[in-house]
Design a protein that fits this description.
CATH topology: Rossmann fold
Strand order of the largest sheet: 2-1-3-4-5-6
Largest sheet: 6 strands, parallel
Number of helices: 5
Shape: globular
Distance between the termini: 33 Å
CATH architecture: 3-Layer(aba) Sandwich
Length: about 180
């Protein structure tokens, strides 16, 4: 089955690896990056057009508030369609201990996104919504952190396998948590 995939935030990091894995497996992929300012009206219209043409939407946008806006928009538009919507969230949202102000902002954004997704999953819908929660991933944003990190390609392969499993077996998959070893 050839999928039409939209990767929002697909020009770097996890998103770029997701684009590569889907393309390498013969799927048609469109990627957007930071050049798409979803705060502008014209960009929102363009994004809606791209989402309309996709079977699978992967939401890798960095900002949690932008991710929530996209999740709500997708749910409103596509809840009665056979689409897959994947949110890249974060296992670090449940981190404990002393955090910096920047880390608190990130964790707060991601927890709000997880909460929104979980509540939407309880509503009647045909669209499949999956939350992917990787631990710290080896991207340029995490290069200076001296902690175990997941490989970007590994995260992308897990996402690809989740989507193909959902499609092949028609199962409901709500959330995947990943940890670096």
């Amino acid at each position: 089955m050839n999928m039409r995939v939209l990767v929002i935030g697909g020009t770097s990091g996890i998103g770029a690896s997701i684009v590569k894995v889907f393309k390498d497996n013969g799927h048609e992929v469109t990627a957007t990056g930071r050049e798409l300012d979803i705060g502008s009206e014209s960009a929102r219209h363009h994004l809606v057009y791209l989402m309309n043409t996709a079977d699978t939407i992967v939401n890798c946008a960095y900002s949690g508030s932008n991710q929530r806006e996209l999740l709500f928009k997708a749910f409103d538009e596509y809840k009665d369609q056979n689409k897959i919507f994947i949110n890249i969230e974060s296992a670090n949202a449940w981190r404990e201990g002393q955090l910096t102000v920047d880390q608190i902002a990130y964790v707060t954004d991601k927890l709000a996104l997880v909460t929104a997704r979980r509540h939407l999953q309880k509503l009647p819908r045909q669209m499949k919504i999956i939350g992917i929660c990787p631990a710290t991933v080896d991207t340029k944003y995490n290069a200076s952190k001296n902690i175990p990190k997941m490989k970007v390609d590994s995260v992308a392969i897990i996402i690809y396998n989740a989507v193909t499993t959902v499609l092949e077996y028609g199962i409901e998959l709500s959330e995947i948590h990943m940890q670096a070893c």
